[in-house]
Amino acid sequence: MKITKVEAMYLRLPEVKEQCDSGQDALVVRVETDAGISGLGEVDSAPLAVKAAIDGPYSHTITSGLAHLVLGEDPFETEKIWHKMYNANIYSGRRGIAIHAMSGIDMALWDIKGKALGMPVWKLLGGGFHSRIRCYASSLFGDTPEETGELARRFRDRGFNAVKFGWHPMGEDERTDIALVREARRGLGDDADLLIDAGLVWDAKTALQRANAFAEQRIFWLEEPLRADDYEGYRKLTESTSVRIAAGEEESNRLSYLDLMDRGRVDVVQVDLTRCGGFTEAMKIASLAQDRGLPVANHGFTTYINVMAALHWLNSIPNALICEFVAEEETNLREQLTKQKLRAKDGYLEIPQAPGLGIELEEEAIRRYRVA
Question: Which domain, by its residues, includes 229?
């Protein structure tokens, strides 16, 4: 079997709000083979930059478009292909965009392998730790503390026993920050877990003050309170509070995760398979975390391709903690791009059993929303 085509498809809603919601556009990767088997992947990044990294031509030995590199390769040789892509982009891609783009291709290759063998990806990865995974409803904060409390009540009534709120208006001022968390807890009730995503808004001292204040509401974790490169700040914070500190979605490949774990000393390592290097690299990151006694969770705020990939991965590692599951109620690309629509039941997601990733595109939606 040989790879014959790599297609990077940029999809976008007609109207995109200026807010931290990566469900308004998507970069989907489709890899085709001469055996008639195709695989799907996704990249959560700057979509057109990723598309250029995939579609671009060969430039020289250590800078090349990724599609050029993988055409003609055997899709079963995922480790070899991963290193070929990495080594041929040393100039442009040891971190960031090129790693993100590699993630989509790697994911699609594992989908092809699973389909060819008639096995779900988690079984190819050696998994089988779970029949279902606990998930949390992931949402942006409401515009006000009161709106946030009402959102929490709605998620609770839908059966979620863990809910996360994040980003704006967190970080505007101390009073608003504390009120947002207080009302979220009030709406959620005492028996469910409340997770808070600060959205990179504070320095270490302020984050410590907020963590101590939020501890009164018994939050499950405080996510990304500091800017991504402030590993020293993360170390100071985690050593000074009993609140779990989670981070990782900004990292790409295991080397930057080592900085986060060994210098930043975070308590929960968050991995997004659509930007960390795909399954091939995510398995290594999870092993590094396991060696350090750290639990891992996925990050995913995009389509169900991302969620399905995360479920396969979480089922393949011993240190999986919980699964992010976007449960916002507004219409977006997530509900339209794939034939499969994932639903949580009693706060859990079932592990996929179909070959490969177990997800297919809704071709009419692809035609409707594709812009490049």
Answer: 124-357
Sole residue written with tokens 């498809």: 9
277 lies in the same domain as 318: yes
Domain with 329 in it: what CATH number?
Answer: 3.20.20.120
Which run of H or E residues covers position 165? strand 162-166
Q: Which two tokens stand for residue 3?
A: 């790879």
Query: What is the Cα gyration radius of the chain?
Result: 20
Query: Which runs of E-coded beta strand occur in 224-267?
Result: 245-247
**What is the number of structural domains in the chain?**
2
Residues 202 and 323 in one domain: yes
CA distance 273 to 15: 27
- Angstrom distance (rounded) from CA 120 to CA 352: 7
User: What does pLDDT average to in each consecutive run of 10 residues of the chain (372 residues)?
Assistant: 98 85 88 98 97 96 96 98 96 92 98 98 98 96 97 96 97 97 98 97 98 98 97 98 97 96 98 98 98 97 95 98 85 88 96 98 96 95
Same domain (yes/no): 213, 103: no
Residues 6+ apart with CB under 8 A from 63: 88, 89, 90, 91, 92
CA 232 to CA 264: how far, in whole Å? 6
115 with 133, same domain: the answer is no
Q: Are residues 77 and 94 in the same domain?
A: yes
CB within 8 Å of 116: residues ≥ 6 apart: 1, 35, 37, 75, 76
Clarify whether residues 209 and 199 are in a common domain: yes
Pair type for strands 58-60 and 38-43: unpaired
Q: What whole-number distance in Å separates Cα of residue 193 and Cα of residue 9?
A: 37
